[in-house]
């Protein structure tokens, strides 16, 4: 069952961003070397991913086809700085900033518009404590570690597929020490492959795992360094399969979370050559995994193509599983209906922030105090069934960012240190918002306080 959604005492919609870029790719065709065709094509590009780099001074923004670009913009002004050169054919684009006329002119003049990944950018991530590095992958089968300062591809790794053809990649990540890169591929023939490289020797792969998943590998994410693989029984239960080798994390294990459209989540040892021994934990969600990540070092969250949302324990035991569109708020204080999951992000305090969107382009932040625990059943029995009786704790609606995007919001970055949220979408607009919940989330509800605390509430008509 889905949880109830309760507005926080501090809930208030925020209709005005701190700063914006309007139409990141919709400058007049004349701005692009006189090419009306290229200008028209770039106006169709979506913003797909946003990453904070260079000590939060800049943002890396990935765009969809036909431009397939990664642009670097100034985080303070949203002015265009440079485009990353993946060596592909020309694709044109520009950022128009609210910083003023000079910023707009500089943006339009400065974009060389080289494609970052021919065929499409499928994943973009910053890495390092201050976002010193940037990694991406694409449909042409490459993983690139970028020199974000120069815009050049510092290290490039290729995944070869059937007949020597490139294997399209959908997901990538780099380990905390920077010595291992992992990427997940599309299904090609009978194989969906997780490929590993040492970026110090990018021309040769370390190893490939071909049987962990049977369909597109949509998620690869290295475990937090503080994550400890729990000691586990050797026998499986239900849909959960556990390896007898997983008896606690040892120093030679490098743990990787993967997810796939085959419905499986898995935690594997990236250092293990034998794939039969590499897979330590698997769980079958039974629905296509579109995105997933870590909840601190205590568990995992996942979102599906069917807009369902789930959380899992460190052992990949299922905890929560519900349709993210069902929790809604309909009160005098707040009116909110979710249409889709944008993303989720674990905070420095191991809280889980879940960002949801509406088809109109609005975004909301929701959370639960214990994303890895089910609510305890109520000890009392009443004719009126309470939230606690369902075993699902209520969630809190913290804030909404409204009236700026048009259509679906595809990308969101929560910058805790600077107290801002950056969003981008199908309208090619980039907005920077104030984050009123920077720091610890407060989930005290403004209404139905007893229900929010997990208590039973009497139905007045039955008393």
UniProtKB/TrEMBL annotation:
Key words of the record: Repeat, WD repeat
Which residue ranges contain the repeat WD?
Answer: 114-156
Source species, domain of life: Eukaryota
Annotated coiled-coil segments of the chain: none
Q: Which SUPFAM superfamilies match?
A: WD40 repeat-like (SSF50978)
Q: Which SMART domains does the entry link to?
A: WD40
List the source organism: Ephemerocybe angulata
Q: What is this protein called?
A: WD40-repeat-containing domain protein
């Amino acid at each position: 069952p889905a949880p109830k959604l309760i507005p926080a005492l501090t809930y208030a919609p925020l209709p005005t961003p701190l700063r914006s870029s309007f139409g990141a790719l919709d400058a007049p065709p004349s701005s692009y070397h006189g090419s009306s065709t290229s200008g028209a094509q770039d106006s169709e590009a979506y913003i797909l991913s946003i990453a904070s780099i260079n000590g939060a001074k800049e943002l890396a923004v990935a765009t969809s086809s036909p431009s397939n670009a990664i642009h670097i913009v100034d985080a303070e002004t949203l002015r265009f700085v440079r485009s990353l050169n993946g060596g592909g054919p020309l694709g044109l684009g520009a950022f128009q900033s609210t910083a003023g006329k000079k910023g707009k002119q500089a943006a339009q003049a400065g974009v060389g518009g080289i494609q970052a990944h021919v065929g499409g950018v499928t994943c973009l991530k910053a890495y390092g404590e201050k976002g010193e590095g940037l990694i991406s992958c694409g449909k042409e089968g490459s993983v690139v570690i970028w020199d974000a300062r120069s815009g050049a591809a510092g290290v490039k790794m290729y995944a070869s597929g059937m007949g020597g053809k490139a294997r399209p990649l959908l997901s990538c990540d780099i380990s905390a020490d920077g010595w291992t890169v992992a990427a997940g591929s599309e299904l090609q023939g009978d194989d969906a492959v997780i490929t590993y490289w040492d970026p110090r020797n990018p021309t040769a792969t370390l190893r490939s795992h071909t049987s962990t998943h049977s369909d597109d590998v949509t998620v690869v994410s290295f475990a937090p360094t503080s994550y400890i693989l729990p000691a586990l029984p050797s026998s499986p239960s239900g849909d959960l399969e556990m390896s007898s080798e997983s008896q606690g994390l040892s120093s030679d294990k490098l743990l990787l979370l993967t997810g796939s459209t085959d419905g499986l989540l898995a935690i594997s040892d990236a250092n293990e050559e034998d794939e039969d021994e590499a897979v330590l934990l698997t769980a079958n969600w039974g629905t296509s995994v579109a995105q997933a990540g870590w909840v601190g070092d205590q568990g995992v969250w996942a979102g599906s193509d069917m807009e369902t949302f789930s959380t899992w324990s460190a052992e990949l035991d299922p905890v929560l599983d519900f349709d993210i569109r069902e929790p809604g708020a309909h009160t005098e204080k707040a009116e909110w209906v979710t249409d889709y999951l944008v993303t989720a992000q674990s905070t420095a305090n191991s809280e889980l922030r879940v960002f949801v969107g509406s088809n109109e382009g609005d975004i909301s932040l929701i959370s639960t105090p214990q994303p890895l625990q089910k609510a305890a059943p109520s000890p009392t029995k009443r004719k009126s069934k309470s939230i606690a009786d369902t075993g699902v704790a209520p969630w809190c609606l913290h804030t909404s960012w409204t009236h700026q995007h048009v259509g679906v919001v595809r990308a969101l970055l929560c910058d805790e240190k600077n107290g801002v949220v950056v969003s981008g979408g199908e309208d090619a607009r980039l907005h920077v918002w104030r984050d009123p919940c920077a720091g610890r989330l407060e989930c005290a509800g403004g209404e139905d306080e007893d229900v929010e605390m997990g208590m039973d509430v009497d139905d007045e008509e039955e008393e």
